[in-house]
Amino acid sequence: MERLRILLVDDEEDLVSAMAERLALRGFQVQTATRAAEALGHLDENPFDVLILDVKMPGISGLSLMAEMKRKHPHLPVILFTGHGSVADAEQGMQEGAFDYLMKPIDVEELIEKIRSAAGSKKGADP
Amino acid sequence: MIGADVSHEVRNVLSVIGEYAGLLDDLVGLADKGRPLDHAKLRNLSTNIAKQVRRGTETMERFSRFAHAADEPLASFDLVALVENMVALVQRRAALAGCRVQAEFSPPAIPVRGDPFALQHLVFSAIQAMLESLEKEEPIRVKVARRGPEAVLCVSGPAAGGEPSGRISEQLSAAVDKCRASLETSLADGVLSLVFTIPIQ
Question: Is B23 exposed, middle or buried (0-12, 13-18, 19+ CB in 10 A)?
Answer without folding.
Answer: buried
